[in-house]
Amino acid sequence: VERLYRDAKILSIGGGTTEIMKELIAKQIKL
Q1: Structural domain count of the chain
Q2: CB count, 10 Å around CB of 12?
Q3: Contact (Cβ atoms closer than 8 angstroms) between residue 5 and residue 22
Q4: What gap in Å lies between CA 10 and CA 26, rounded to an integer?
Q5: Are 19 and 11 in contact (CB under 8 A)?
Q6: Domain range for residue 16?
Q7: I need a labelling partner for 2 at 20 to 30 A (CA). Which of 11, 16, 23, 24 fits?
Q8: CA–CA distances in Å: residue 25 to residues 3, 29, 31
Q9: Residue 9 and residue 21: Cα distance in Å, rounded?
Q10: Distance CA 4, CA 16 (A)
C-alpha cells in the first residue's frame, strides 16, 4: 500500500514519464 502512495506522488510530479514506471511496477507486483 505504501508503494501505491509513493507512486501517486511520483505521478503527480512526473506526469507522462512516470506512466511507464507505473506499468513496470505493476508487472513487478504481478511477479
Answers
A1: 1
A2: 9
A3: no
A4: 14
A5: yes
A6: 1-30
A7: 16
A8: 9, 6, 10
A9: 13
A10: 17
Contact by Cβ (8 Å): 21, 10: yes
Predicted local distance difference test score (pLDDT) of residue 12: 64
pLDDT digits (tens, 9 = 90+) for 1-31: 788 777 777 666 666 677 788 888 888 888 6
- Show the cell assigned to 15: 506526469
* All three cell numbers of 29: 507486483
3-state secondary structure 1-31: CHHHHHHHHHHHHHCCHHHHHHHHHHHHHHC
Q: Which three cell numbers stand for residue 22?
A: 507505473
